[in-house]
Amino acid sequence: MINRRNIVGAGLLGAAGAAAAFANPEAAQVLAPAKINRNRRKFNMVTTWPKGLPGLGRAAERVAERVFAMSDGLMEIKVFAAGELVPAFESFDAVANGSADMYHGAEYYWTAKSSAFPFFTAVPFGMTAQEIMGWIDFGGGQELWDELSGQFGVKAIQGANTGHQMGGWFRKEINSLDDLVGLKMRIPGQGGDVLRALGGSAIALSGGEIYQALQTGSIDATEWVGPWNDYSLGFHREAPYYYGPGFHEPGASLAVGMNLKVWESLTAGEQAIIKAACESTNHTSLGEFTYQNSVYLDLLVREHGTQLRSFPPEVVKAMSEAAYDVRAASGKDGIEKRIYESFEASLKLMRGWAKVSDGAYYPARELGK
Question: Which of 27, 88, 159, 208 counts the highest number of beta carbons within 10 A?
């Protein structure tokens, strides 16, 4: 049974405490319920993606949604498509100079700033999605990335991955190396350098500019991502031949970059929320691209007459040789050399495992079809 005297006593103690607090403001501070100061933060995120683009554009939105949810609504990110605040290729500068707080994009778009940036997206005949995650998270890649981006006042984190990409859409078939000579193709990063080495012309265009260039004949071919994103931009209506695999981007990692001063103004908990949102989006996007690319590849072939092609062996061999030279040329000294050497060492290490795991498994699986 409840002891009435205890209740009365507690009430008297409460009353006495209240009276003491009224008489002594310092006591009031001790007895008052604890107050937690929770600051609301709002950020603008610019992106390199066309408005409404599935996959890549959705990944940026997903980061924002997860930051908002995990912070109980105290951290809000407003996402802007390419061109809404700044053009796609000006996203990095906007964040570096503080015009925007964050970007979502591909690091190889910033090659003019440093030849090492492509290693944090994709390089020809480089790492698969799993391998680049391994290098960045466990092989020292993030520390080198912090050093490189920090020179420009940016903190960058993995924020999506497309998985393996296709080699591109072509108006005409590629039957030999001669077919690459004079070819005008939209292809950024080191992939573009490989094409130039083989006699082609590489053109950098943002996603929203590609279709018109292909339609008007300004370019003869384009790569973008894979069946899911490519279908949404309609490339199949202008170029019938779809080549693969995409040796230039075997596992493209996309990034969330944040103005370094803004990043350093966050609490450790706020930084952890952004990191967690980016990490979860990175993993979610890889599964999403893997599944949706399968759905849309079937759709393109079955309903739109897309003709799948593989690059001829002599073209693959020449691309591989050129890619090795391009990668080496991008890391001659300074931070670029250290990034190149770290990347190559990790790639060599993980290739050993790939040979006896995925590399051996895929052909074996086909035997039972």
Answer: 159
* CA-CA-CA-CA dihedral for 102, 104, 106, 107, to nearest 10: 20
Per the CB < 8 A criterion, the answer to whether 219 and 185 are in contact is yes
The answer to the question of whether 110 is labelled as a binding residue is no
29 labelled ligand-binding: no
Distance CA 145, CA 244 (A): 30
The pLDDT of residue 34:
44
Give pLDDT tens digits for 85-96: 999 999 999 999
C-alpha Rg value of the chain to the nearest Å: 26
Q: Yes or no: say if 274 and 266 are a contact pair by the CB < 8 Å rule.
A: yes
* 41-164+251-290 and 168-248+307-351 share one fold: yes
Burial class (CB in 10 A: 0-12, 13-18, 19+), 97: exposed
Q: What percent of the chain has pLDDT over 70?
A: 89
Give 168's contacts (C-beta < 8 A, 6+ positions apart): 185, 187, 221, 222, 223, 224, 242, 243, 246
Of 17-21, 79-83, 191-195, 253-257, which range is least confident?
17-21
368 band by pLDDT with thresholds 50, 70 and 90: confident
Put simply, whether the predicted model's pTM sits higher than 0.85 gets the answer: yes
Return the CATH superfamily for domain 168-248+307-351: Periplasmic binding protein-like II (3.40.190.10)
Task: Fold for 41-164+251-290, please state it.
Answer: D-Maltodextrin-Binding Protein; domain 2 (3.40.190)
Q: Is 165 annotated as a binding residue?
A: yes
